Amino acid sequence: MADPSAVWQDVERIRAQAPLIHNITNYVAMNLTANALLALGASPVMAHAPEEVDEMAGSSAALVLNIGTLSAPWVTAMLRAGNAARRMGIPIVLDPVGAGATRFRTETARRLLRDLRPAVLRGNASEILALATSEAGTKGVDSRHAPEAALEAARRLSAEFGGAVSVSGPVDIIVRGASVVRTANGHPLMPRVTGLGCVATALTGAFAAVNASPLAAAAHAMAVMGIAGEIAGEGAAGPASFEMRFLDALYNLKEEDIAARLKMESA
Amino acid sequence: MADPSAVWQDVERIRAQAPLIHNITNYVAMNLTANALLALGASPVMAHAPEEVDEMAGSSAALVLNIGTLSAPWVTAMLRAGNAARRMGIPIVLDPVGAGATRFRTETARRLLRDLRPAVLRGNASEILALATSEAGTKGVDSRHAPEAALEAARRLSAEFGGAVSVSGPVDIIVRGASVVRTANGHPLMPRVTGLGCVATALTGAFAAVNASPLAAAAHAMAVMGIAGEIAGEGAAGPASFEMRFLDALYNLKEEDIAARLKMESA
Amino acid sequence: MADPSAVWQDVERIRAQAPLIHNITNYVAMNLTANALLALGASPVMAHAPEEVDEMAGSSAALVLNIGTLSAPWVTAMLRAGNAARRMGIPIVLDPVGAGATRFRTETARRLLRDLRPAVLRGNASEILALATSEAGTKGVDSRHAPEAALEAARRLSAEFGGAVSVSGPVDIIVRGASVVRTANGHPLMPRVTGLGCVATALTGAFAAVNASPLAAAAHAMAVMGIAGEIAGEGAAGPASFEMRFLDALYNLKEEDIAARLKMESA
Questions:
Q1: What domains can be seen in chain B, in order of their start residue?
Q2: Closest partner residue to A38 among B32, B192, B244, by Cβ?
């Protein structure tokens, strides 16, 4: 699993295939998410109307669902798109933004997980804990917990719905069944840029479009996020120049960047 | 038509008049669109509520409609705003984002075109082909065709609804009646920034607010887009620094930039 | 009031407490608003669903309401969140974006003001005039008036609903009861970046979360906006590099920046 050439192979596939990634995501992160997918080499589309989501999901290479600014009609659209994706065998990635902060978010995320059985569930530790236990306490959309605190919760959720669970933090933990992968790339400015968690989820969708292993796709996405973050952090003057440099770094990512920087361990 | 001073005259008018441009556009591009209009010198407003769209459109100098993240209520708002604009003689610019990717988008764009007869229809080649023929195949919101492939389709659409058709690509084609204008300014990073097509549409609205010729307004907008793109590309490290430099270049655009760089031909 | 150390104390409190700021705001400014709150040290969340707004507002340290892209369901959500905030004693900041441009905006802003009695009302001069008088004439979301023209209107509104009124412009005027504070920091590029007014409102929310005086919170927020703007302006090549530098400046803000630059006067 800790193989830089496997990560790079996925990046090259994304660049060569430009897979269409259908996103039903939040208003805050839509623009950044689309730009990150374009920078990586994928082709993003955002669509949420019930009249078109099944058609759009059905012609995509992956479906990304994100409840960051959810409302009842959008949840309906997510279920509809998700069911179309399932029928077509298209991988789904779910980001339970703010699960644990309100009952509506927790319950919606649990329903999407149960009904759609995504290939990857990607969230912060507080969100993953909120989905697996009755422990609430997400602070808005920010985590109050370190990823390791959510390891058992991630294992339980993975066993329940069958996909991988990707928990982001200073050290990311990606779990599926008995497998655990940790990636330790990244930069302290990353939590100071809104929507970078949502970007991690969308990039996970792009990797899932070219790699049939949910565990590998999720781990490769987190590694690429973290490596681009490290490159961006060198010379950034603050969170906004960091964000710009992050997107430029994704676009310019080279095999040797991954070879030199990858911090990934399987356990 | 290939007259740099005519392009510059429009830029000066926009800067002097700061025309109010009413946008009903997609969530992804709203922020960039507003910033591009401000950088050019126009005054953007975004409003979509049925309670206010006719009043807002009626007090604007141009109306920009963009179906990038459409839904039924927003289409209703577009029709309502468009009818108010027509009654007041305010030019409308339509961007059929993703026409050809789903039936909902194709049919909505056709209906807006038929009912509102915009001054300018601005899209990529796949979208224009999808509106004129039964040939589908837009990939999400990205084109699979070069602009020249859509020349006949653009001619047919222009003849049907009476306005100009502006097809963007490495060489943009702007058609109205028997007239064809080509602009060849631009930079390869432009398709890697989300929403730059939507920006082209919004800037076309600003030019239509100060130039009564739909063909000239559309061509001047594409020329200014491309020239700002060329300036931005010099020194950009990737798509995000390109985007920043593009907006700064729009703001700083000078007559001599247009004189030195304009690549526009009438046929 | 013109005490740099009092401004700095609030900044330090925000950085130490990372108060959760619940925003129901417009689509255009959501991303920038969230990034500005993060750069300052606060923890932003965006949520508008009726199923969750009272729960989210009730667990927040301040509620920011902004009608920039309002629609009837969002106004309902604002009232619901606002009532929850009032019950819990959580300060509310209201931005009446575009009041005076359409009847829907003027009437909605008046209703939110009357029903929710926010701690701070923050807008441009045309918006404040439109709320206090029958004089309309806001140009989309841009002001046609200087702040001083709205001084009496601000006084009347403050007397009516009891909170502070913060009128932004080259010299900002903040009024509550008989008190008037003026802040004169800022940069000419600020009105050329979309959503910076909305950012001023959101930062006012962050200051209101740590300072119980609505007048001081509003004045400190405008001072910090203006000082970050001045720092950003040094070396900016245009509005987009200005925006990036503004966020970086907020993140890097130091006590000596405020001490050296603060231009605040009480009258």
A1: 4-266 (3.40.1190.20)
A2: B192
